[in-house]
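Human: Not sure, check this?
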Amino acid sequence: MDCYSWKRGKRRKACFLSLNLTSMMRLTKPTLFTNIPVTCEEKDLPGDLFNQLMRDDPSTVNGAEVLMLGEMLTLPQNFGNIFLGETFSSYISVHNDSNQVVKDILVKVLKPLDVKTKFYNAETDEVFLEAQIQNITTSPMFMEKVSLEPSIMYNVTELNSVSQAGECVSTFRSRAYLQPMDTRQYLYCLKPKKEFAEKAGIIKGVTVIGKLDIVWKTNLGERGRLQTSQLQRMAPGYGDVRLSLEAIPDTVNLEEPFHITCKITNCSSERTMDLVLEMCNTNSIHWCGISGRQLGKLHPSSSLCLALTLLSSVQGLQSISGLRLTDTFLKRTYEYDDIAQVCVVSSAIKVES
């Protein structure tokens, strides 16, 4: 397994007219010898002939003759592929036999993975990252590690495992191999650090999230590593005033009051606001309390939490709408509809708290 051989191969002529030949010597590991098993049932005409021939073949595994991989090693007959992020040893020789000077010679090793990312901005300043990783090589990969290194303002939580019987189990189970052209999805949750969470203006403008660190193994254990550039998201536009939900029940009883907690943030970095809250009923959602009450002054980049009571007169999945905030300084009104959804059930059904 640990023996090595020097393989010398010639590459095709380069695109530059002044370069005629590029050769490379690479320290290459041997590969397992493969054969094509030929077998049949005992009641067929050959009987046990094919099986006996495979048992006598020295390249097959004793007791597992039908496997394609054998116990012998064979030296590679071609140069093979070198993928981006893969570690290898080589000697490159480039010969220029023209009468012109050649500049900016590049070596272009192949792309092994195709990485696509999607960002989801939550109302609670959390950012969810979905990374889709596809193996675009011709051989399987063992995915050793796929991690996210967050930027200085965030803490990251991997959502690629579940807890079973007190143990952390990967959602991919024992399927650590990524077959050629297969795609696997990884999910991460980023939360602002405590020292930045209260600074709404700073978090609002953060676009750099972090970078992915991917480590894999191929063939006989050759390791490859790839780090992406800094991943950037589209900064959400909250406007001058942001309203988010801090607490809300999943399920409530029909025509029974329930409580929610809202967080109002002044996203402006310069202007103080004097806010008035109005609550407008909809066909299914009815607010309990006084509409048009003064909330007082809200300084730049500061927040306040507000407890509100409401009830629903219609069963099913209902959308919470009808909140209005008015800045008396600028006489500007901000409307908030469809801020959350709640499941309304009949009062005869017991709702677990």
User: Anything to note?
Assistant: The first strand starts at residue 5 and ends at 10. Helices lie at 49-56, 194-197, 200-204. Residues 1-23 have pLDDT under 50 and may be disordered. The two ends are 61 Å apart (CA to CA).
